[in-house]
Structure formats: structure tokens, C-alpha cells
From TrEMBL:
Keyword Coiled coil: yes
The protein's name: Metallophosphoesterase
One of the Pfam families matching this protein, by short name: Metallophos
Calcineurin-like phosphoesterase domain ranges (all copies): 137-314
Coiled coil: 8-42
UniProt entry keywords in alphabetical sequence: Coiled coil
Gene3D superfamilies for the chain: 3.60.21.10
Domain of life, per lineage: Bacteria
Amino acid sequence: MSMFDDWRKRVEDDLVGAQQALQQKQQLLERLKQVHQQALDLIDSGSTVPVDIPWEFAHGLSILEGVVDGRHLPSTEEELPTRVMDDGTLLGCRKWELLDPQWGEALVEWFEHLLNRAPWAAKPNHIAMLDNASFNIAGDWGTGEYIAAKVAKAMSAMPADYTVHLGDVYYAGSSPDELRDFASWPAGTRGQFTLNSNHEMYNGAFGYFQELGLRFPLQQGTSYFSLYNQNWLIIGLDTAYWSEKFNLYMDGALGDAQTAWLKEVTAGWQGKILLLSHHQGYAMDGSTKTPLYQEVAAALGRDPDYWYWGHLHNVICYQPQGKLLARCVGHGAIPYGPAKALDGKPQVAWAETRSADDCQYPERVLNGFVRLELNGDALTETFYDENGYQRWPEH
């Protein structure tokens, strides 16, 4: 039985279940057809302008063979040579590119867990840390591939008190994915953390919560947490669990219980606040704030001082906006190219454009991580590439 044959049987079974439970089978099929056509139109046009579609849906009709009217989407490099989109994503069929056929696993897991997800854990840990503390942070790292291994080696070469993964274990955050991909994650000397994300939610977060118990004991089985000292409150958020599932958990949301906790843990706090999340607070170019930003600011009653997120497979340092200094650190492992959409944008201070000299992905620019060092009330941040070289601030 082929990969698509197995996936088709699983999706067909779950579509029947979804129809019986939610009467939404036709709605889901129409969405698959819409995404299929949008992908074909983009391929045919030759455009590099990003299209806001859930690419994990793209091969859905190919999985449900017999539903497709007309052309199947490309599934090989010969059918579609890689194209760098203006947002840096790679439109192609090679592994980890937008039309990699193996993204079908995410779609199948999503179907299977529409009505079945891990229970919400609601007893977050509140951890005291030293006044001087260091963090190595990488986002969207969970591929188990050679790029992630290079980033892990670079992180290990400069040990930190804590390491933080900002979420996304591929393809669908299942238990085998989590076990394999975190086998080489570099632990902090005092502990490590991992955030929930849209990809973990495709598996209903079952793999994610299992992994918490195996490798992330400081989180006490909970997908959100806080650390503090006399100057800093660091908050790790779960922005995936309560996100809209019919949009593939792509947007980010807090939910009522987490919102109440966020208000409680920050009540009366006069020091600095640093947020960690998977989903972003800004549009990619920093021009607008997302609904998640509005949710977070309302719960805090103020803007945070720093916010590090992933989700977008880029590294982007934004200019200060009001009180907030924000960073996208989603370049832990997925190959990506230079994002022309960021060129000349006034809210962007820096984004990676240097080639990785990768023969497997000639278009790829450098992946990496960020290191934070807290010294009293001061914060020093340094972005390093996969080879351990400082990339920003430039020196």
C-alpha cells in the first residue's frame, strides 16, 4: 500500500466521522478544492507573491484520489523547480518545501484529531531563576534533519542555563516525531522548555504532552509557564491549543483559562516582561499587529517589553514599536530563502540574507538561534547562525 493509499483510507474514514458528528464533510472537501486550485493558479502564474493558504491542505485531493477534477499538483522537482517566494518560503516539492508530499501527514493527523485532542493542563509552573541567567532559543526546529543538527551543535557550543523551543515538530507533532526530533535537543544546564504549536496540534497535542513528561519536567505537564527574578518575568504561552482548528491552528489564541492565568501572574508586577510564543504578534513586515497581540496586551494591561516568537520560518528583528522589542526566531531548521517582502520595510531592523552555501538547497540562507543573557535588569541578545557565528547585532 502506498503512502497516499494509506492516508486516503484514514482521511476517508475520518471524513465520514466528521460528517456524522459535525455535518461538515462537504465544507471540508470544498476547502480542499479551493486550496488545490489556489496552488495551481500560483504555480501557473509564475508569481512569487505569497498566497495566504494552508499549504498542509494542498495535497488533500491527491490523497482523496478520485475527487480531483483535472490536474494533480506537482509532487517532484522535475514537475516544479523550486521557486523562492517573496516571504522566503520555498515553493517546490523537495523535502520541507511548500509542496512536499509528506505534508500530507499533517493533514491526515488533523482530520483524525478534529474531535480528539489531549486534555488542557492547567497547573503551570512558576519558577524562580537567578538574577543573571542565560537562554538559548530556537523556533520551528523539529525536523530531525541536518540543519537542526547543525543548530543544535552551535547551541551546545555555548551552553545556557535554559533552552527554549518555540514550537513546531514536523510533520505533525506525533509521538514518533517528538521522540526522534528531540533526541538531539541541547538541554540547558538548569532546564529546558518547549511550546505548543499548530503542528503539535495536528496530532491533538498528544505527542507534545507525552514529550513534556519525558524531557521537559520543569513544565510539570503544562504547555505554558513562567520564570521570574527580581527584575524579570518570563512567560511561555500556549498560543496553539485554543486557536481555530478549522484554520489549521494557524492564527494563535490564548483561550479563557490562559488569559485568566496571564492576568493573575502579572498582577502587580512592576518589572520587565518577556514573552515567548509560537504564533506571532506582528504581520511579517511589522506593519500591523495581530489579533493575538491584542489579546495578549489586553490580558497584560500593557505592552510586554520583549517578545520572541516562531511560526514564520524566518529570522526577523523588528524596530522598537512603543515599548515592545519583538523578534521572529522561526529559522531553527526549515530551509528558507531571502525574504524580498522585507526589503526596505521601516519596521524591520534586520533579517537574514546570507547564503548557507547548501548544495541540497542552493537557495537557502542561514538558519540559527538567538542567545539571551540577563544581567540584573539588562538584557543582551545575540543571533547566531548554524555554524556558531554571530549574525546580529553586526560587529
